[in-house]
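Usage

Read records sequentially. Each one opens with the input sequence:
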Amino acid sequence: MDPLDEHAVRHNRQIDSTVAWFERRLNAIVADAQARLTAELLGNLQQVDGRLVLGRDGLGQVVRIAQRFKSLMNTAGFPRLISDLHEAYARQIPTLSEALKIMGLRAPRWGDADKAFFERNIEASNQTIAGVVDLVGQRAKQRALTSINGLRPADLAAVLAAELHKTGPQAAAIADTAITVHYRMIAARAFDKIEAAGPALEFKYYGPRDRLNRPFCQRLLSVDRVYSRENIAQMDNGQGTDVFVACGGYRCRHQWLAALTPKNSAALDIPPVRSPLIEPGSPEIARAFEAAFEDSRLSAGLFRAVPSVPVELVSGKDLSSYVRGPGGVARILLNPKDLDPQRGDAIRHEYLHHVDYSLAQPGQMTVSNDPESLVGAAFNRARNEFVSLLHDSKRSARTFRSTLGAVSDLAWRDLYGSLSLNKVASGHTDGYFIADFGRVNREAFANLGAIYARRSDDDLWSLVKLTTPDLAQAWLEWLDSVR
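and closes with the structure output:
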């Protein structure tokens, strides 16, 4: 899947989750306000033979239904809910920054005028949502005025509930559209700034492809082409709105993003992402990384997903390594010998350590040691199987041990040396793993990735798939999820 499509899907899920939370909270507030309002009315209306009679005092109570509903909503926590919703609007700027990173674009600097513009949009949206409370209250008042005489108390409660319960769905629909449009307005302003500093971009329509799509959105998704801002400005979504900001219209789930095209890369002087994003300490380092990942099977999506990392040369006496300092600040330290194109595995190995740490889920140090991740679980299974098999004295175990140990490739020997705790092949010393058992999976991850990343060694990767098919499949599925 296109990484921008993946971003759009994640963004929609984020908004759906926020809107569902908002509607749940709002429904609880409405239920509280409705119960209090119903109790107030029934306490002040006259009853004759169990039926309500609208006298002069009762009329005054009914006329004030909208006003009282709004007041009771405020007492039940509606203003706090609107304030909490502000966080959802605030998340749209970092979400756009993530998308811009995938596109290879630098997020613009937002000035005071931009921030004031965004806040005005948020305030306008909040007023529209608050307007639902007024509108629903007015409708409830009209229903009560026209039907209250002769109703049983329970019937009045049902009349009020039928109207007031509309608050949640209507306000949630407005919040859904408001958050999405806010994101698109930020995006439009960002693209204005980016295009003002350089040539025009090309845009593509991203988002869900399902039966909920409008015909307008279906057509744009089906043709799968790119458009200029001028092209988009001439489009008509049938709702009279700006297509670049509103897309298909009310509650549309789609968005325009700068397409990952050669023209966009050339226009912005952004080379296609073919190798890791690094901060090389010298031209020699940059050339060595390009050579190590030339025509690599690792995807551009993975390279975009991993933050840039500084790379420095160390003394010839020191081994190449990946280090993380306070606050998770990472560096790759290279022995000058590993700049040799024939020693590309060393560079690939250290970079894969950076991948392992950088793509870990919140609360986890690395992907490889996360038991919930595809590869983390697969490494654990492989290690357990190796330990069990290698303690078996049967001929099959001896054959397996000799087969693994017969391959002379260093990355292979380090991979299976890690998984077997040095019972097969060789890698780091026993003491290295004993000092930190998490190193077993981390070293296995870096070596498996280094083998996979080679551009021409299909034979060794085929042997990995034959030897540990579960691990190879988990690795491929994890990579696909990163793409």
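Summary fields computed downstream for this record:
- The beta strands are 46-48, 51-53, 203-206, 255-258, 278-280, 309-313, 321-324, 330-334.
- Residues 392 and 398 are 8 Å apart (CA to CA).
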